[in-house]
Automatic annotation (TrEMBL):
Protein's recorded name: homocysteine desulfhydrase
Cofactor(s) the protein requires to work: pyridoxal 5'-phosphate
GO terms for biological process, alphabetical: cysteine biosynthetic process via cystathionine; transsulfuration
GO cellular component, as recorded: cytoplasm
Source lineage: Bacteria, Bacillati, Actinomycetota, Actinomycetes, Micrococcales
Keyword set, alphabetical order: Pyridoxal phosphate, Transferase
Length: 399
């Protein structure tokens, strides 16, 4: 039966609940599991430590290898991403680390092509060389010429952070040749974009953001083929960047409302974008499709424009900093994708570790739009803009 995304979000990863006689998702908090006997215990251990699934009549042995509550969430997310499997981690950065290790050190191909702009933490991780990789940072159009025989991975992000620039997933996948492409799909979520359908090998999420949606779980997840999932589970079993089952439970529950949240947050964001465009305090608004989508990327790869906005303040850094502090309904905080709206300054915070020539401009603020009434959010921004004007008037009077 082919089901619509809203139905999939509510029902996935729950096929066996009726047979278990329960309605809510069960949580398994065991750290260790009884062994049937030494041989079967050993076989089960071997299967899972090398990235495989639990064996029949075996044991889960030790839950750094496998946790049923986490596996349920992984199954649900994989279904939503049109993937064979997914592998969850303790954070988005643990997920990115596992992807890099699995595709580079584990394969002997230590060169990575990274398409900028990227999330500050990803840029920092790659630039640091901590994982023993050599990295070529490039523009989307330079992927083809950057690929070498020893390239193990191409990393890209779309919509990009924080400028909401769209990068053509199919074009990057084609330019990468056979090299696996991982797309950071955190901003779009599986509701608006499915990178695997467009030729990417992996879709990565900071599940901390929209998937969780309530600001109370730090987690990461990668949707991919079973073959790539095995490589990722092997890294996870060995390095231990696990998602706790309570986090997995909250994420799985969060998936059920993801389509509705995205629709309403996006509707709010579109209202706010329309309002911002006409405001004299704002020099430029960044939002997918605002430029008319001349290359047709939005139409080809997304089913919506999302709920992230960036704006360039006319008064430069001083204005940006005052607006971030003056907003009241918008919490001045990093992170994004939750039910409540956030405002933050990317150059000073999320993108601080990025080299200056690739860092966002100092007059840019990023907004994550939540589920509040759009009129209240607009009124809050209007109030914050008025504070900036008062400050500027006071300054000119002093001069
Ligand atoms: C937050 C974020 C990450 C990192 O995820 P954590 O869960 O904070 O480790 C990666 N990519 C994007 C786009 C993000 O917003």
């Amino acid at each position: 039966m082919s089901l619509h995304p809203d139905t999939v979000a509510v029902h996935s990863g729950r096929d066996d609940l009726n047979a278990l006689g329960v309605h809510a998702l069960p949580i398994d908090l065991s750290t260790t599991n009884p062994l049937p006997d030494i041989e079967r215990g050993g076989d089960a251990y071997e299967a899972m430590a090398t990235g495989g699934r639990p064996i029949e009549n075996g044991s889960l042995v030790y839950q750094r290898l496998w946790n049923p509550t986490v596996a349920r969430f992984e199954e649900a997310l994989a279904t939503m991403e049109h993937a064979e499997a997914s592998v969850a981690f303790s954070s988005g950065m643990a997920a990115m680390t596992a992807v890099i290790l699995a595709m580079t050190s584990a394969t002997g191909k230590r060169h990575v092509v990274a398409v900028r702009p990227l999330y500050g933490g990803t840029d920092h991780l790659l630039g640091s060389g901590l994982l023993g990789t050599e990295v070529t940072f490039c523009h989307p159009s330079e992927v083809g010429v950057s690929i070498r025989p020893e390239t193990g991975l191409v990393i890209m992000e779309t919509p990009a952070n924080p400028t909401l620039e769209l990068v053509d997933i199919a074009a990057v996948a084609a330019a990468a040749g056979g090299v696996p492409v991982v797309v950071d799909n955190t901003f779009a979520t599986p509701i608006l974009q499915n990178p695997l359908d467009l030729g990417a090998a992996m879709s990565l999420h900071s599940a901390t953001k929209y998937l969780g949606g309530h600001g109370d779980v730090i987690a990461g997840v990668v949707a991919c083929s079973e073959e790539h999932a095995e490589a990722l589970r092997r890294v996870r079993a060995v390095t231990g960047g696990l998602l706790h089952p309570l986090g997995a439970y909250l994420l799985h529950r969060g998936l059920t409302t993801l389509p509705v949240r995205i629709r309403q947050q996006q509707a709010n964001a579109q209202r706010i974008v329309q309002w911002l465009i006409d405001r004299p305090e704002v020099d430029e608004v960044f939002y997918p499709g605002l430029d008319g989508d001349p290359q047709g990327i939005l139409d080809r790869q997304m089913r919506g424009t999302g709920a992230m906005i960036a704006m360039r303040m006319r008064g430069g850094y001083a204005a940006a900093s005052s607006v971030a502090s003056a907003a009241e309904l918008f919490t001045h905080a990093v992170s994004l994708g939750g039910v409540d709206s956030l405002i933050q300054h990317p150059a000073a915070l999320t993108h601080r570790p990025v080299p200056a020539d690739a860092r966002p401009d100092a007059d840019v603020l990023r907004l994550s739009i939540g589920l509040e009434d759009a009129d209240d959010l607009i009124a809050d921004l209007a109030r914050a803009f008025a504070v900036v004007e008062t400050l500027q008037e006071t300054k000119s009077q002093r001069i």
